[in-house]
């Protein structure tokens, strides 16, 4: 490969990484949330406090930090605030 080709590929890889990081920080703006590439298809919520049977499937997106669950407004809260 030529130096130009290698340089272009390097720039594309770096830009792709930056775009992915920026997208994650843009989508997960609510408190107590984080981006995950492979989260549960059945997250715990205030309406569903107990674990339940759930299909094993990776879901990309925001999820609540450990110890927090979704309330009816889509916010991650401690279970005692449900």
TrEMBL record:
<dbReference type="InterPro" id="IPR036084">
    <property type="entry name" value="Ser_inhib-like_sf"/>
</dbReference>
<feature type="domain" description="TIL">
    <location>
        <begin position="30"/>
        <end position="82"/>
    </location>
</feature>
<dbReference type="InterPro" id="IPR002919">
    <property type="entry name" value="TIL_dom"/>
</dbReference>
<dbReference type="InterPro" id="IPR051368">
    <property type="entry name" value="SerProtInhib-TIL_Domain"/>
</dbReference>
<keyword id="KW-0646">Protease inhibitor</keyword>
<dbReference type="Pfam" id="PF01826">
    <property type="entry name" value="TIL"/>
</dbReference>
<protein>
    <recommendedName>
        <fullName>TIL domain-containing protein</fullName>
    </recommendedName>
</protein>
<keyword id="KW-1015">Disulfide bond</keyword>
<feature type="signal peptide">
    <location>
        <begin position="1"/>
        <end position="23"/>
    </location>
</feature>
<keyword id="KW-0732">Signal</keyword>
<comment type="similarity">
    <text>Belongs to the serine protease inhibitor-like (TIL domain-containing) family.</text>
</comment>
<dbReference type="GO" id="GO:0004867">
    <property type="term" value="F:serine-type endopeptidase inhibitor activity"/>
</dbReference>
<keyword id="KW-0722">Serine protease inhibitor</keyword>
